[in-house]
Amino acid sequence: MRLVVFGLPLLVVILNWLWPLPLPLGLKMFAAALMIVAALYHYWSRLSSGSVFTPEFPRPVIILFNWAFGTILFLALLQIALDFGALLVALVMWQPVHIPVGARVAVGGIAGVLAAIGVANALRVPPVRNVAVTIPGLSPAFDGYRLVQLTDLHISRLFPAKWARAVVDRTNAIGADMIVVTGDFIDGSVAMRRADVAPLAQLHAPDGVLAIPGNHEYYFDYTDWMRHLKELGFHMLLNRHTVISRGGAELVIAGVTDRSAPRHGQAGPNLAAALADSPEGAPIVLLDHQPGDARAAAAQGIALQLSGHTHGGMILGLDRLVARGNNGFVSGRYDVNGMTLYVSNGTGLWPGFALRLGIPPEITCFSLRAG
Predict the structure, then answer these.
(1) Mean pLDDT score of the chain, rounded to an integer?
(2) How far apart are CA 183 and CA 193, in angstroms?
(3) What are the φ and ψ backbone dihedral angles of 112, each rounded to 5 degrees?
(4) Core-most of 311, 320, 324, 333, by most CB within 10 Å?
């Protein structure tokens, strides 16, 4: 499947775009070789670290790979569109149609620009997105309670300590009552990322900094990461909950482990365990990295579920495919049988495909309203 997904665009670009260009054969062969190197980005990543999820190259090299990889994908789509258009014209006119060299050059330039914009959008420190959520049964004591969600930071060579420090500064400046991180902190082992994640220890809020693991934590020494994140000051909700009090009113914040956990020999998500002994009648906010089980959470009386994992789909159009893999949930707010589900676009992005077009990253600040 991976060969089809990544191999076909490469063939389209080399055979349908590059080869018809009026260039010397040697130059075509050199350009084709460079494209093959770019298309094998994930293979080089595995060679650099042992995992496709963590390219251990200098940051400019990772940025260049993402740009080149994106350019190939966009160029393949644009070339297919050119070919399809030429076919339609040929059928209407009932004679062969030659695609002008200028058209090929134009789509090549457009693809490169789109990829550059996509990488730049992915790398920026996210803006703050404000979302008001009405919680049925929320006490007036919690009306206006502010909770900030970070998710899918993917701290790595691409999103290093400098970027993490900027995210921490912007998050702390909000002055929220609580900060939560809904998984995918990192790409890499504790030894690889220790310095890059260090700024996260500076996150602070009156009611604490709570977190759950995402699927990527299980790819890299899960037990070590849970220990290290606790040392950084995170209150890890591994199928557990905590209760926030305001006078006699209570609000439950529950968290579950990731759906991928059993494949790595770890405890899977257990909502019943997370809610055990929680105060009856108190509204519940659930942290679940993946949004796919939202309907089951709604059936258990959850008021608000915060998720990530999808990165919002990253690119308009691609988001529809990502939604299909997540039970229809990909970005933003959903009403799920009376429960509010919010799927963040993510704060960072996996360095193996760091492009965003039309789907910006976010630091999300929720203002809870009594309903």
Answers:
(1) 95
(2) 15
(3) -65, -40
(4) 311
Please, how many CA atoms are within 13 Å of residue 44, restricted to the half-sphere of its CB? 16
Whole-angstrom CA distances from 142 to 19, 119, 177, 194, 249 are 64, 39, 10, 36, 8
HSE-CB for 250 with a 13 A CA cutoff: 12
Rounded CA gap, 205 and 199, in Å?
15
* Rounded average pLDDT over 274-291: 96
| Count, residues in the chain | 371
The pLDDT of residue 3? 54
Question: 102-159, pLDDT tens digit by residue?
Answer: 999 999 999 999 999 999 999 999 999 999 999 999 999 999 999 999 999 999 999 9
Strand partners, 341: 305, 334
Token digits of residue 293: 């089980």
DSSP 160-190: -HHHHHHHHHHHHHH--SEEEEES--BSS-H
Closest CA to 69 of 24, 91, 39, 30: 39
pTM over 0.70: yes
Instruction: Kindly give the residue spans of alpha helices, DSSP state H, lying in 316-357.
Output: 318-324
Strands 339-343, 304-307: parallel, antiparallel or unpaired by DSSP? Answer: parallel
The whole-number pLDDT of residue 1 equals 52
How does pLDDT run across 223-246, given as a tens digit for each residue?
999 999 999 999 999 999 999 999
Task: Report the DSSP beta bridge partners of residue 268.
Answer: none
